[in-house]
């Protein structure tokens, strides 16, 4: 396979959809984002060994940007690097899950209150479109697409609030929670419950009722924490 040039690349279809400028990422950044998405979605489950050479061959690059991407994943707690042995996808640390929920409640409680004060008709229409896509994904049990649209809904609220950077902070904080939540979405009725909870938040925003919006968000986020004991019994190799 011919090696791709290891230079900056213009990336950003998703960013353009959200009304932001495309951004430039390095080859290492592109590899990181691909691996990050695969780890969070559990397409790469905890305990899986990663081979630098195989990843480098897939991307058509040298091992240098692969090592950079793996080091960044290690710093984020998603892989464990063992010198002379290799790299393995990290298990989900149970201790990180409750803390992530606390942080989400604090920050998203604030952003949804602010969004309630500033939401326009166009903003509500954007949330309506997101909720409709969530319903479509739930109807065909597409948990992966549903999760992505769930994320888009919460990110949209941060943007409506005028503080989109808060979502970037939250993504880093809740990374382990997201991995655990992927195991809960197939539960009977869970996606439908999420849609209903999102509708309550949406209605509070449309009514510009900041207190109701915050209350609905806190209730919604209280439900996202998974039953860790049950998950550990079902997936004993996934948690630590």
Automatic annotation (TrEMBL):
**Which portions of the sequence form the region Disordered?**
1-22
* Domain of life of the source: Bacteria
Which SUPFAM superfamilies has this protein been placed in? GntR ligand-binding domain-like, Winged helix' DNA-binding domain
- HTH gntR-type domain span: 25-92
Keyword vocabulary terms for this entry? DNA-binding, Transcription, Transcription regulation
The GO terms describing molecular function are:
DNA binding
Tell me the PANTHER family matching this sequence: GNTR FAMILY REGULATORY PROTEIN, TRANSCRIPTIONAL REGULATOR, GNTR FAMILY
For this entry, the protein name equals DNA-binding GntR family transcriptional regulator
**In which organism is this protein found?**
Rhizobium binae
């Amino acid at each position: 396979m011919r090696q791709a040039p290891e230079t900056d690349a213009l990336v950003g279809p998703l960013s353009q959809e959200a009304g932001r400028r495309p951004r430039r990422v390095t080859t290492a950044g592109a590899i990181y984002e691909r691996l990050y998405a695969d780890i969070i979605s559990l397409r790469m489950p905890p305990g899986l060994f990663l081979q630098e050479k195989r990843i480098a061959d897939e991307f058509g690059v040298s091992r240098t940007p692969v090592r950079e991407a793996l080091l960044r994943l290690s710093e984020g707690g998603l892989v464990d690097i063992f010198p002379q042995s290799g790299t393995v996808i990290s298990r989900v640390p149970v201790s990180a899950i409750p803390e992530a929920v606390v942080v989400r409640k604090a920050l998203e409680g604030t952003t949804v209150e602010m969004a309630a004060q500033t939401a326009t008709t166009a903003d509500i229409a954007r949330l309506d479109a997101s909720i409709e896509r969530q319903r479509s994904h739930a109807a065909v049990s597409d948990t992966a697409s549903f999760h992505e649209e769930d994320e888009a809904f919460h990110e949209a609220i941060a943007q409506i609030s005028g503080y989109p950077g808060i979502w970037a902070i939250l993504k880093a904080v809740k990374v382990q929670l997201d991995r655990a939540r992927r195991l809960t979405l197939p539960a009977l009725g869970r996606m439908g419950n999420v849609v209903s909870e999102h509708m309550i938040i949406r209605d509070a925003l449309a009514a510009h009722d900041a207190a109701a919006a915050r209350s609905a968000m806190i209730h919604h986020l209280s439900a996202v924490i998974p039953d860790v004991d049950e998950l550990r019994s079902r997936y004993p190799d996934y948690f630590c």
